[in-house]
Every structure is written in C-alpha cells, then in structure tokens.
Design brief:
binds NADP nicotinamide-adenine-dinucleotide phosphate, binds ligand G4F, 13 strands, 40% helix, seven-stranded parallel beta sheet, UDP-galactose 4-epimerase, domain 1, 2 domains, two-stranded parallel ribbon, alpha/beta, Rossmann fold, 15% strand
Length: 338
C-alpha cells in the first residue's frame, strides 16, 4: 500500500495557504500547517475551516522551531508561503521584512538540510514578479520570463530576491529538490483586505449595500498581471511533481491598470462611473512604484501543462459577488480574510 503523502505549509493562514490546503486535502495528503505567535488570532479560524490540519507552532525567524516542525511532520513536500508579503508594509518595516521574507527562507532550507530530510522532502519557494521591478528593461513589450533580469523596487522585492537565490543555491550546492515559482499577482475571495483588489471589491460591495460611501486609494495607473489564486496553487503543486527542480513563471499574459479593475468592479453593481466614489491619499502611495507587470507563463504551460482557468472579468466578478455575500451576512470570512 502507498504511504500517505505529507505536506508542510508555512503561511497556511494566508491566501495561498488556504487554497493549497484545500487542494492537498482533496488529493489525499496529510497536511501540517505552521502557526506563529503565542496567541495567533487566526488559529481558531484555521481549526474551524480546516479541522483536518495538524497545526505546528513555529516561526520562520526561529530556526529551532523549524527543525522541530520538520521532525514532527516528516514531510514529502514543503511549501514555503510564509512571508511579510505586503509591499507597502515592507517600506515601513524593512528589517522585519529581511528577517522573515529573506532570512526565514535560509532558516527553513537549513532545517530541511540539517534534519537529513533533503533527500526525501521537496521544497517550493514562493518567489514573485516583484523581483523584476516592472521597468521592463530587457524584454520590452514581451512578458517577463524565467530568464529576465531582476530589478526589485522595494524592501519586499529585495528580500524575495535573496530568498530566490538562496533557494537556487541550495539546489545547486546540495542537490536539494527546491523549486521556485515566480508568481505574478494572484487574487480571489481569500485575498487579504490590505491588497488593492480586495480593498476595492470590499468597498464596492459596501457602497452597493449602503454601508460606505467611498474608498481611499493610492496611485491608480500601475498595471498588474492579475490571476486567480486557486489556479496558481495548482501550479505550485505541479512544480513539486515535476521530475526535476526548476524555476517557473505563473502569470496570465495580460496586464490591467487599477482603473480598469475599478471599472469592472463598480460595473458589477451597475455603477458606470466610479470616480465620485474614489478618493486618493499619499498614505497609500509607495516611495518607489512598480509601474507595470506582465508575465510570460509559456514555460509552465509547455513543461508542466499548467493552465489558468479564471480570466480577468471572471476574477473581478467572483470577488465582488463574494464580498456582497459576506457583507450581507450570507457567507462567513475564511481564515486569510480575518
Ligand atoms: P499572505 O496572505 O500575506 O500570507 C502570508 C503568510 O505568512 C501568513 O500566513 C502569515 O501568518 C505568514 N507569516 C508571516 N510572518 C511569518 C513568520 N515570521 N513565520 C511564519 N509565518 C509567517 O500571502 P499570500 O498572498 O498567501 O502569498 C503567499 C506567498 O507567496 C508569500 O510568500 C508571498 O510573498 C508570495 N507571493 C504572493 C503573490 C500574490 O499575488 N498573492 C505573488 C507572488 C508571491 P500570520 O497569519 O501569522 O500573519
Ligand atoms: O495589491 P497590492 O498591494 O499588490 P502588489 O504591490 O502588486 O504586491 C502583491 O503582488 C506581488 C506579486 O507581484 C506579491 F509578491 C506581493 O506579495 C503582493 O501579493 O498593490 C498593487 C498596486 C500597487 O501599484 C499599489 O501601489 O496597487 C497600488 N495601490 C493603489 N492604491 C494600492 C492602493 N495598493 C494597496 N495595497 N492599497 C491601496 O490603497
């Protein structure tokens, strides 16, 4: 009889952690999830939404706790999703971002190595399109791919670049199976309210229901390659089933401005002109901005057979519908939304 596959997820309380937990459980995995803090406010919600998850207390900044997590879970697959992931926050907390988002990855890789599990545990590292920086220096007009140059524009992007290279270094130095997914923005019902898409869909729902009269944002001209998180966690899993560790871009190959997102989101509730409902405040602008992100996922499509299923209008619609249901009391918030 085949042994049950075991997966350890850091960042299980986040957006991608929720989607991935669901996917791995459906596939029959025993799922272990890392929770940090002495009284994590999301723990109860995690236990309620995913009662089958084995919770392990650990922190990416605490090497001993990571070693213990490896010994407890004996994983076949480790998904490192834990990070300070908000770009604006990283400007205000650069050291913390370096400790968690950069050095935390080294701590985790070392935990895999020193416990002697490098031969059996495959590792996924959550890399990001923020490493490119959006200036499109070397592939004008085309999407960024796995060979494009990096030019991060935030403490978050810089920390993720260290994480990306230390992951590749452990692959090359120790022969470890460490795959990196260079993922472009992915959103959905589980997206945190601090990110622009969810902030907008939540406000659209509140305005539609008469609970709010406007939303305050930062710059509206930046463009992003926005996909659906449920599609992207499938790609993470596919990367760890591949016969060798590699780097893969996941993206939609389309880019849209925040203004376009606003038009579609307000359009869902019959509002054609969003301008009277949107204010701007420098508080939500960044010292350096990533102007445009556009990804080229052709390698993942060719090698892994990965395909995204949700398109841009479909993404906006499902987020607005979910927020209307949530604010009308017809749905419960998931762990990552808390
Ligand atoms: P998210 O919703 O912000 O979740 C981040 C997770 O990291 C949370 O579970 C958080 O736990 C955990 N975490 C923070 N500090 C930690 C620490 N010191 N030790 C252990 N865990 C810690 O992020 P996401 O959108 O799901 O993204 C998942 C990963 O993909 C992140 O690494 C992100 O940088 C990367 N990424 C995301 C996107 C995207 O568009 N979503 C694109 C490219 C790459 P708490 O609940 O305790 O705070
Ligand atoms: O939603 P955002 O905060 O996402 P951002 O900065 O693109 O980062 C996300 O995607 C990355 C992948 O490329 C991930 F690695 C990262 O972890 C995260 O998930 O901002 C998107 C755009 C930016 O240009 C920002 O300046 O929206 C602009 N924006 C305008 N007003 C705002 C706001 N962003 C936020 N969060 N809040 C605003 O009020």
């Amino acid at each position: 009889m085949n042994e049950t596959r075991r997966a350890l997820i850091t960042g299980i309380t986040g957006q991608d952690g929720g989607h991935l937990t669901e996917l791995l459980h459906e596939k029959g995995y025993e799922v272990f999830g890392l929770i940090r803090g002495q009284r994590n406010a999301r723990k109860e919600a995690l236990e309620a939404e995913f009662p089958y998850v084995n919770i392990i207390e650990a922190d990416l900044t605490d090497q001993t706790s990571l070693i213990q997590a490896m010994l407890t879970s004996q994983p076949h697959e480790v998904y490192n999703l834990g990070a300070i992931s908000h770009v604006g926050y990283s400007f205000r907390n650069p050291q913390l971002t370096a400790d968690i988002t950069a050095k935390g990855v080294l701590n985790l890789l070392e935990a895999v190595r020193v416990t002697g599990m490098a031969d059996t545990a495959r590792v996924y590292q959550a890399s990001t399109s923020e490493m490119f920086g959006g200036l499109d220096y070397n592939r004008p007009g085309a999407g960024y791919n796995e060979e494009s140059l990096f030019h991060p524009r935030s403490p978050y992007g810089v920390a993720k670049l260290y994480a990306h290279w230390i992951a590749r270094n452990y692959r090359e130095s120790y022969g470890m199976f460490v795959a990196t997914g260079i993922l472009f923005n992915h959103e959905g019902e589980r997206r945190g309210l601090e990110f622009v898409t969810r902030k907008i869909t939540n406000a659209v729902a509140a305005i539609h229901l008469g609970q709010q009269d406007h939303v305050t944002l930062g710059d509206l001209w930046p463009k992003r390659d926005w996909g659906y998180a449920g599609d992207y966690v499938r790609g993470m899993w596919q990367m760890l089933q591949h016969d060798q560790p590699d780097d893969f871009v996941l993206a939609t190959g389309e880019t849209h401005s925040i203004e376009e997102f606003l038009t579609l989101a307000f359009g869902q509730v019959g509002i054609d002109d969003w301008r009277p409902y949107v204010k701007q405040d420098p508080e939500f602008m960044r010292p350096a901005e990533v102007d445009i992100l556009l990804g080229d996922p052709s390698k993942a499509e060719r090698v892994l057979g990965w395909r995204r299923e949700v398109d841009f209008p479909g993404l906006v619609k499902r987020m607005v519908d979910h927020d209307i249901a949530l604010l009308s009391g017809r749905a419960q918030p998931r762990v990552a939304e808390r």
